[in-house]
Write a structure and sequence with these properties.
The protein has 152 residues and is α/β, with parallel strands linked by helices. The protein has a single domain, classed as Ribonuclease H-like superfamily/Ribonuclease H (Nucleotidyltransferase, domain 5, 2-Layer Sandwich). It has helices at 2-13, 59-76, 89-95, 107-117, 134-148, and strands at residues 17-28, 31-41, 46-57, 81-86, 122-127. A five-stranded mixed beta sheet has the order 3-2-1-4-5. Helix 2 runs parallel beside helix 4 (107-117). The longest helix has 18 residues, at 59-76. The protein is globular, with a radius of gyration of 15 Å. The termini are far apart.
């Protein structure tokens, strides 16, 4: 079993470019929050998908936490280039430098995201409509539901 896990990890490490779909959700603003992300290889196979409860946060803080978690996960498997897809126009435009970061709560998250992105050889971030981000959204909401004791 150990050899299988090692070989699987090596397969993941061989991925140079991945597509990452991220979403953050908050019930209330701020409120109970969760994140979800899906990392997809160049051959369109899902490598990793995760949802996690993050406690109390705003929707925009949750969006940043989703991106940060996905980028950290991508780094651990040796990815060098990332293409991020997110449905938060605000966060996408902040990372692209098109919008200023006005919220004090978002400034440290933005700085951390930019520092992480600079560790990759190349990155892009693209705004997508919610309908194209259903799996990351489902994972974020499922994480909140699990902590709230909601039966799924």
């Amino acid at each position: 079993m150990q050899a299988f896990l090692f070989n699987l990890a090596e397969t993941f490490k061989a991925q140079k470019l991945v597509n990452i779909y991220t979403d953050g959700a908050a019930r209330g603003n701020p409120g109970e929050a969760g994140i979800g992300f899906v990392i997809i290889a160049e051959d369109e196979k899902v490598i990793i998908k995760k949802g996690r409860y993050i406690g109390r946060a705003t929707n925009n803080e949750a969006e940043y936490h989703a991106i940060l978690s996905a980028l950290k996960e991508a780094k651990t498997i040796g990815v060098r280039e990332v293409k991020i897809f997110a449905d938060s126009e605000l966060i996408v435009k902040q990372i692209k430098g098109e919008y200023r970061i006005k919220s004090e709560g978002l400034k440290p998250l933005y700085k951390e995201a930019m520092a992480l992105l600079k560790e990759f050889d190349r990155y892009d971030i693209i705004h997508i409509v919610r309908e194209k981000n259903k799996e990351a959204d489902r994972l974020a909401n499922q994480a909140i539901d699990a902590m709230a004791g909601v039966v799924i």
